[in-house]
Amino acid sequence: MSRHNPEVRLRHMLDHAREAVELARGKTREDLANTRLLQLGLVRLVEIVGEAAASIPREQRAKYPGIPWQDVIGMRNKLIHEYDTVDLDILWDTVSAELPDLIMSLQAIVPPEAHE
After folding, report:
1. 81 assigned to active site
2. Catalytic residue among 25, 58, 81, 115
3. Does residue 113 lie within any of the structural domains?
């Protein structure tokens, strides 16, 4: 299946959102402030979620109104274009509060991966 296929992009969103939540598991907002690698990892994973979302055609996105497409894509744009002023409070809230909801929504539409 082509990496440009919307189903593949939805899978990327789900996988990277899960990875971000897992990376933050057991950590605190203070850990984020004091751990550069945690900051870089979370920023990159959230960027990928947004990039994958932006790559899904609008007509395909319209099929899933429960996904906050503009918020997801907007966060990616903010992280990419305002990389020198990343608000760690917003990043932490995104990973700890917003991504779990996004994961739930994506799990409802992304078919489980077949294991060979």
Report:
1. yes
2. 81
3. no
Catalytic residue among 12, 18, 61, 76: 76
In a domain, 48, yes or no: yes
The CA distance from 76 to 44, in Å, is 9
Q: Which structural domain range is residue 103 located in? A: 6-107
* Structural domain contains residue 1: no
Residue 115 annotated as catalytic = no
CA dist., res. 90 & res. 45, Å (int): 14
How many domains would you assign to the chain? 1
Alpha-carbon dihedral 70, 34, 44, 90, rounded to 10 degrees:
0
72-116 pLDDT, tens digit per residue, is 999 999 999 988 899 999 999 999 999 999 999 999 999 887 543
User: Does 87 reside within a domain?
Assistant: yes
